[in-house]
C-alpha cells in the first residue's frame, strides 16, 4: 500500500505517529508486543507508563493497579511500589514478576476490595479478626478502624442476644374458645402452633374437642425471672432457650 493510504488509516484511528511507530516495532518483534501488552497505559504525551501490578499472596495471584494499591500513603503497598530504593520495600519477585508476599490469600480479597471501592465486605466463611490482622499488616489505618468498629458491633449484638430468653407457653382450651383465645393474644406473645388433642382430655360431658395453643415471647433476663415467678397455673412454661 502507498504512504498516503497509511496516513489515511492513521487519521481515521486518531493515533499519533509516536504510538504508531511503537506498534509497528512490536509487530516486527513479538517479544516487544508481549512487553507492551503486559500492563501499560498510554498518556497524553505519547509515553507509556506501567500501571498494572501482579501480586503473589501466599501462592495465589492477584492483579490490580498501582492507583488502587497506592491510595494510602502510609500503607505497605505504597512503600512497596515506590521507585526510590531508599524508601521502597525490598520484596522478592517470582518468575512471573509478581511481588511475593507471605500472607493468607483467603483474607486478601477484603483488603483489595476496600482499596478499590472503600467498602468493607467480608464473606461468611471469614472472621473479622482475620481481616483485622491483615489490615494491620498492610498498615491501612482507615480499614483497621472500620474492622474494629465491625467487631464491636458484632460483640454488642451477641451480648444482647445472650441476655434475651424466649419463653414458651402451652395453653389448653376448648374448640368453642379458639376465636376468643386468638383475638385476645397480645402483650408481645407470638403464635407458634395449635395442636388438636381430641376430646379424651375432657373431664365433663362436654363433647367438644380440646386444643393446645403454643405461644412464645422474648424476655430480657430480668423480665424472664419475674415471668417465672408470676406464672399462673393455667399457663405453664414448658420450655425456654
**How many structural domains are formed by the residues?**
3
End-to-end span in angstroms? 85 Å
Beta-strand content: 15-25%
CATH class of the largest domain: Alpha Beta
Q: Quick one: CATH superfamily of the largest domain?
A: Potassium Channel Kv1.1, Chain A
Low-pLDDT windows of residues: 2-48, 232-241
Overall shape: it is rod-shaped
Radius of gyration: 35 Å
Give, in order, the helices and strands: HHHEEEEHHEHHHEHEEHE
Which structural category fits the helices and strands?
alpha+beta
Domain BTB: 51-124
Protein name: BTB POZ domain-containing KCTD5 isoform X2
Organism: Brachionus plicatilis (Marine rotifer)
GO molecular function, one term: cullin family protein binding
What is the compact description of this entry?
41% of the residues lie in helices and 24% in strands. The protein is of the alpha+beta class.
Describe this structure in words.
This is BTB POZ domain-containing KCTD5 isoform X2. The protein is an alpha+beta fold and 241 residues long. It has three domains: 3-49, no CATH class; 51-160, Potassium Channel Kv1.1, Chain A (2-Layer Sandwich), CATH 3.30.710; 164-240, Alpha-Beta Plaits (2-Layer Sandwich). The chain is 41% helix and 24% strand. It has ten helices and nine strands. The protein has helices at 3-13, 17-28, 30-37, 66-69, 76-80, 108-117, 128-137, 141-162, 178-184, 221-229, and strands at 40-42, 48-50, 52-57, 60-65, 99-101, 164-174, 190-198, 210-220, 236-240. The strands form three sheets. The chain has a four-stranded antiparallel sheet with strand order 7-8-6-9. A three-stranded mixed sheet has the order 4-3-5. Strand 3 and strand 4 form a beta hairpin. Helix 2 crosses helix 3 (30-37) and helix 7 (128-137) packs antiparallel against helix 8. The model is unreliable at 2-48 and 232-241 (pLDDT under 50).
Amino acid at each position: 500500500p502507498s504512504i498516503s493510504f497509511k496516513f489515511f488509516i492513521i487519521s481515521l484511528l486518531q493515533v499519533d505517529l509516536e504510538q504508531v511507530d511503537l506498534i509497528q516495532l512490536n509487530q516486527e518483534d513479538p517479544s516487544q508486543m508481549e512487553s507492551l501488552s503486559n500492563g501499560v497505559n498510554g498518556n497524553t504525551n505519547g509515553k507509556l507508563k506501567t500501571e498494572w501490578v501482579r501480586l503473589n499472596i501466599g501462592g495465589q495471584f492477584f492483579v490490580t493497579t498501582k492507583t488502587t494499591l497506592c491510595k494510602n500513603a502510609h500503607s505497605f503497598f505504597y512503600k512497596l511500589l515506590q521507585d526510590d530504593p531508599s524508601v521502597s520495600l525490598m520484596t522478592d519477585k517470582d518468575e512471573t514478576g509478581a511481588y511475593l508476599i507471605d500472607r493468607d490469600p483467603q483474607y486478601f480479597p477484603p483488603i483489595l476490595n476496600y482499596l478499590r471501592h472503600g467498602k468493607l465486605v467480608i464473606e461468611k466463611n471469614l472472621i473479622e479478626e482475620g481481616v483485622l490482622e491483615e489490615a494491620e499488616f498492610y498498615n491501612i489505618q482507615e480499614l483497621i478502624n472500620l474492622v474494629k468498629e465491625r467487631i464491636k458491633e458484632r460483640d454488642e449484638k451477641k451480648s444482647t442476644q445472650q441476655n434475651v430468653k424466649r419463653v414458651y407457653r402451652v395453653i389448653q382450651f376448648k374448640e368453642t374458645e379458639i376465636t376468643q383465645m386468638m383475638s385476645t393474644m397480645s402483650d408481645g406473645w407470638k403464635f407458634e402452633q395449635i395442636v388438636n388433642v381430641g376430646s379424651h382430655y375432657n373431664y365433663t360431658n362436654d363433647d367438644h374437642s380440646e386444643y393446645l395453643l403454643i405461644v412464645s415471647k422474648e424476655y430480657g433476663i430480668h423480665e424472664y425471672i419475674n415471668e417465672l415467678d408470676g406464672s399462673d397455673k393455667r399457663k405453664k412454661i414448658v420450655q425456654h432457650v
